[in-house]
Structure formats: C-alpha cells, structure tokens
C-alpha cells in the first residue's frame, strides 16, 4: 500500500513522535521537539537554527553561482587531496562563522580544514561538516549539498578539547542532517526521533515541514555507483552490480552524494562507493559524510554499511578517515553485503 504523507502523519507520528502538520515552520518544529533531546536546554535547538541560518546564506550564493565570482577552483587542495572549489571554501567560511557566532559549538571538524577548529570553549557540542558536497557538480548547475553530524562533547565545558570529544563513533551522534541545494532547497535531519524534511520558501526566508516522518522503502530498483571505476572494483561489488542488471534495476548516479542519497530515501535504492584501486579505503569520509547519512538512513528504516560492518559502529581513528559506503534500502544493502 502506498503510504501517503497524511496517512503516515496520522498513524506512526502520533503514536511515537510529536505530530506536526505539514507547513510547520522549522523554528516552531524545533521548539516543539526540544524536550525530546537528552539535554533539553535549548542549546541543541539553537545549534540547529544556526545551521539553518548559514544554509540560507549558502543557498543564496549557490543559486546565483553563475553570476558572481564563485565558480571554479580556489587554487588550493584540501587534506584529502581534492581540488578545492571556491564554493567549498566559501561554504566552509559561512558555516564556521555562523557556528562561531552561535556559541553552542566548542570544536568543528570540516572537510576543508586539516585539523579541527576550536570555536567556543564553553560550547557543549562538536560538529563535523562537509560544507559543500558534490563539488564536481558546482559549475554545471547540478544539485549539491551540505552534510553535518552533531555530537555532545565528553569533556567538561570550559576545559581544553580532548581527542575523545572529536573522534566519536557515529552511534554517539545526537543529531545529523543535510541540506540539498536542488530544484528546491531542503533541510533533512534527525535527532534520533525519526527523520523530517523541510523545504525552503525563499520569499519568506524560512524552512517549512514538507516531508514528515520520512520512511525509506525497504526495497527499491535503483542502484547508484560510479561504474566508470568498475575495472578496479572487487569481485563481490561487480557481482552485485550484475545482480542489479539481471533484475533490470535502473542505474542513477548524480555524482553528488547528498542528491543520490535523497532520491533513494524517497524512492528506495542503494548508493555504493566501494574500495577502488585509486581509493583502497573508498573515497567518502566517515566523520562528515557517512556517519550523518547512516544515522538518517537507520532512523528512516534503511541501512548503512562499510560492506563488512555497520557504519555507526566504526571507531574513527583520524578526522579525514575514508570508508567504503553502502547505504540505502535495508534489503538492498543486506543483499549487497551478502555477495
Ligand atoms: O566522481 P566520483 O569518484 O564518482 O565521486 C563522487 C562522489 O564524491 C563526492 O563529490 C565527494 O564529496 P565532496 O564533493 O564533498 O568532496 C560525493 O558527493 C560524490 O558522491
Ligand atoms: Mg562530500
Ligand atoms: Mg565537500
């Protein structure tokens, strides 16, 4: 049976989550859910608002990228060897500034910064962020995104930041989400009480609830993988791709992780970035790409794996650690793992 949003709204949400009608402003939604947070003191709510605010600024720049001088390479590389795009650097500045001003974050881990950045020593949260995801698509007007993971610091606020504050497992996330700058701009996040999606209304400058209690279909017929690197895929991956083809699945690959993930979240499907000859550990980064999407996938009934282990159980050893990534519909990920 096709679950309509209203049906989903009237059944599952009311029983286990606070019911919010479609069109609820993000601010009100955060306020009404505050007491769900373990540490319901308003700080996490404020942090989510700070992220939403920064995303509105980045969204404005993304929308007019062709008109202002933010197209193209920045002329520098980041610590995972990627050619930084001007918009990578700009988005990193916007989010860092907003989180600095917000005051809730003590340390920021970013794809665009070699080591973590101290922000507010009194802050109780640590954030890991991919300020601009899908960099290869910036100049060609294809959907791009921002990905974020939020952790509670382990050390006492005001004390120096410890490694244990930074290198936390995905299962320790208190919230995670992404912003998709696509045909419309959406913010999708979880605090461990289901997944909700909000669509940005530019003329009002606000996000409104458009996708309450998002559920990832347990099965799908879409597979997303860059087959251009297929020659260097391990045999199990090649066999799984053949399985998809034998079952007439549809191949879809946007090349922006957030956009490929979002489509599969709505329609069902699997996204795979496996180990390759070029990237023996895979390309995607555990702390600011995989953990957040794994948390959202699981909260929406999906699954996320390295092919061998649950992503959220992986112990990060360093900030920019990579991992093979299999994420999407539960039965499809289980099938892929079985190869
Ligand atoms: O071009 P490839 O090797 O398929 O890689 C594409 C993947 O790399 C990424 O662009 C990596 O993210 P960044 O753009 O944030 O570096 C993903 O968004 C995308 O899924
Ligand atoms: Mg990325
Ligand atoms: Mg990036």
TrEMBL record:
Record's keyword terms, sorted: Carbohydrate metabolism, Cytoplasm, Hydrolase, Magnesium, Metal-binding
A single MF term (Gene Ontology): fructose 1,6-bisphosphate 1-phosphatase activity
Catalytic activity: beta-D-fructose 1,6-bisphosphate + H2O = beta-D-fructose 6-phosphate + phosphate
Cofactor note: Binds 2 magnesium ions per subunit.
Cofactor or coenzyme needed: Mg(2+)
Domain Fructose-1-6-bisphosphatase class 1 C-terminal: 216-338
Major subcellular site: cytoplasm
Class in the EC hierarchy, top level: hydrolase
CC per GO annotation: cytosol
Record: residues binding substrate: 133-136, 226, 253, 283
Similarity comment text for this entry: Belongs to the FBPase class 1 family.
Protein name: Fructose-1,6-bisphosphatase class 1
Encoding gene, per UniProt annotation: fbp
């Amino acid at each position: 049976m096709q679950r309509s949003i209203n049906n989903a709204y009237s059944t599952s949400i009311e029983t286990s989550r606070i019911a919010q009608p479609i069109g609820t402003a993000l601010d009100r939604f955060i306020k009404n859910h505050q007491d769900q947070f373990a540490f319901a003191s308003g700080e996490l709510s404020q942090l989510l608002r700070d992220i939403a605010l920064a995303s509105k600024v980045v969204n404005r720049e993304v929308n007019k990228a062709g008109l202002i001088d933010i197209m193209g390479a920045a002329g520098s590389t980041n610590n995972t060897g990627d050619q930084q795009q001007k918009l990578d650097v700009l988005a990193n500045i916007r989010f860092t500034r907003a989180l600095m001003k917000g005051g809730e974050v003590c340390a920021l881990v970013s794809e665009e910064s070699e080591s973590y950045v101290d922000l507010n020593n009194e802050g109780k949260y640590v954030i890991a962020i991919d300020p601009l995801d899908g960099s290869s698509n910036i100049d060609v007007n294809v959907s791009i995104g921002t990905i974020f993971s939020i952790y509670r610091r382990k050390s006492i606020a005001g004390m120096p930041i410890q490694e244990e504050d930074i290198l936390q497992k995905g299962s320790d996330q208190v919230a995670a989400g992404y912003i998709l700058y696509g045909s419309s701009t959406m913010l999708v996040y979880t605090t461990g009480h289901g997944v909700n999606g909000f669509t940005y209304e530019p003329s009002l400058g606000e996000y409104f609830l458009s996708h309450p209690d998002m559920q990832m279909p347990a099965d799908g017929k879409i597979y997303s993988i860059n087959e251009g690197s297929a020659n260097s895929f391990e045999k199990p991956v090649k066999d799984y791709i053949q399985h998809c083809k034998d079952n007439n699945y549809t191949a879809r690959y946007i090349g922006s992780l957030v956009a490929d993930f979002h489509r599969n979240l709505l329609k069902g499907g699997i996204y795979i970035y496996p180990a390759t000859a070029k990237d023996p550990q895979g390309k995607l980064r555990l702390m600011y790409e995989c953990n957040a999407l794994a948390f959202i996938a699981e909260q929406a009934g999906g699954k996320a794996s390295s092919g061998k282990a649950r992503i959220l159980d992986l112990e990060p050893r360093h900030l920019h650690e990579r991992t093979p990534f299999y994420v999407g519909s539960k039965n499809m990920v289980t099938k892929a793992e079985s190869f």
